[in-house]
Amino acid sequence: MPRVFVQGKPVDSYPRLTPEARRGSVRRITEVGEEVLHKPCRDVTEFGPELAALIDDMFLTMYAADGAGLAANQVGVSLRLFVYDCPDDDGVRHVGHIVNPVLDAGDRRLLDEGEGCLSVPGAVMDVARPDRAVVRGLDQDGKPLVVQGTGYFARCLEHETDHVNGRVYLDRLSKRERRDALRQVADRREGVFARRAAKREALTS
């Protein structure tokens, strides 16, 4: 079986950092409580250099924060778009971006596993998600795109589609669990940002 899928299609090999990241700049990641994270994003209607540049920045920002996925509203842009570089449970790497994503999780088995978020720095909580997902959308040129995932990669697709719909994973938790997550943020945020700063320096120096 291929070990890497790019935009849902198998490739023989792929660099550690995407070509997009090498063109990009690191942007600030928004945090839970900021309005842009808590309202549905707008559909992308214009395809061109500006969208491509945003995707470049999102890839580098994701890598600098050691993330597996990043939605546009996590860099303060209210557009239905996310990027990802994420393994599935079989160790297969999945890399790409999806514009105007629509999720079809279907009637799948739920897995209750640990989940984090770059906009909830330092917190990890168990969240029930379907073990398979299909996301339909467009690429940066406006061409139709379908990406399928299982296991951890399915969780990534579901998590990022939640973001463009104005939801963070804390919205799927009980009030007590949400308080626990926010306590984790308070305890770990400083360390998370120190590690991000070091990673950013390593990637951009």
Structure description:
This protein has helices at residues 19-23, 49-64, 151-164, 175-204, and strands at residues 4-6, 9-11, 69-71, 81-87, 93-104, 110-115, 125-130, 132-138, 144-150. The protein has 205 residues and is an alpha+beta fold. Strands 1, 2, 3, 4, 5, 8 and 9 form a 7-stranded mixed sheet that branches. The protein has a two-stranded antiparallel ribbon with strand order 6-7. Helix 2 packs across helix 4. The radius of gyration is 16 Å and the shape is globular. It starts with a strand and ends with a helix. The mean pLDDT is 95.
Summed up:
This protein is α+β, with helices and mostly antiparallel strands. Helices cover 32% and strands 26% of the residues.
